[in-house]
């Protein structure tokens, strides 16, 4: 049996193949003589040209690569557009003429915040209250000016309340003590609308609702010794140890509070989280600008003016113990 060639087309006519090889060699020599190059250089150039031609002769591969690049560019453009839409939503108010989505946008700081903004559904009643009453009783904390509290609350003594939730307790305190103005601060839009609606229903005109970061309000928008009191009821306890730095009642926070409180003004805190109550007591006791009103230097009984809130009732049902702390600014 004869052995078959692996490539019959190349193996056929060996004599003509040899002749072609000789002709190629002669042409290479002539070209080399004309250009001053060696035959080896010319052959190398031809090999390079052949490789380039082979590479250029794969349009399908080029098309695939181009399609992949185009798809990647389109995906990047879609991501950029999505981020831009999200940025605009953060900056645009949910209700025209209502609380701004990011009132202190120019005051972004690398600072640990004690609050976590959250979005939830706004009811029809809350939306109505925001649209009707925000222009009259609402303000954004943008840090651009100093509030005239005397004008804002018609000459009433003013107590600042930080974090009012859905506003039930705040509205009740305002209705029961119309001689005290309450500047209530929160970032929760449904709660803002709810408090405005409750105050309006009760006929209370001594409530103003502020939207934004209380730290910016204290630091940049309140005049020295302009407040008659501060209320911080049931702030987020941030129970995990790694989150304790987010708790509101810290020495740095009290440093901001002390200058804007009048001498003798009361800072009133309440919490149902025992470890946080202990920290509050420790921090307030150690601060030189505050003195405990409790004779024994501990917790105070709940004052009659602080209503039992729904949140507090839920905590009591679970067996939590509520602690009140009342410290006077010295």
Structural descriptors:
single chain; 330 residues; alpha/beta; eight-stranded mixed β-sheet; 12 helices; 8 strands; 48% helix; globular; disordered N terminus
Please explain how this structure is put together.
With 330 residues, the chain is an alpha/beta fold. Helix content is 48%, strand content 14%. The chain is built from 12 helices and 8 strands. It has helices at residues 8-11, 14-35, 39-56, 59-91, 124-137, 149-152, 168-176, 189-202, 214-221, 251-260, 274-286, 310-317; strands at residues 138-140, 158-162, 181-186, 207-211, 227-233, 261-271, 290-292, 323-329. The chain has an 8-stranded mixed β-sheet with strand order 1-4-3-2-5-6-8-7, with helices on both faces. Strand 5, helix 10 (251-260) and strand 6 form a beta-alpha-beta unit. Helix 2 (14-35) crosses helix 3, helix 5 packs across helix 8 and helix 7 (168-176) packs parallel to helix 8. The longest helix has 33 residues, at 59-91. The N and C termini lie far apart (116 Å). Residues 1-44 and 47-55 have low confidence and may be disordered.
